[in-house]
Amino acid sequence: MAEVTIYFNPKCGTARNTLALIREAGIEPEIIDYIKTPLSRAQLAKLAKLTGGAAVLLREKEALAVELGLKGATDAVILDAIAAHPILLNRPVVVTPKGAKPCRPAELVKDLL
Q1: Which of 12, 31, 77, 113 is catalytic?
Q2: pTM of whole model > 0.85?
């Protein structure tokens, strides 16, 4: 397993920029395209624990998140929603030995490398 993992949506400019910064640091991360290969509820729960909670993982501004009324929802409700609708995952999420967090803006990844 790679020391660095990026949960990645190739359609997202911030995700592509974050990946470029990781590679500029000389690291080839494990890339998980969570749209093609959605994370299980258990994987999302583990990721939430690493990042400080499910709310951190939620892409609140996504139209579907607003439609589903997820702002302020419990961790369980948020994790269920992201598991059912991967587009709700705040992207990209990067996990390294130094920690884990969504990297918006992309430069936040530098704190994890």
Answers
A1: 12
A2: yes
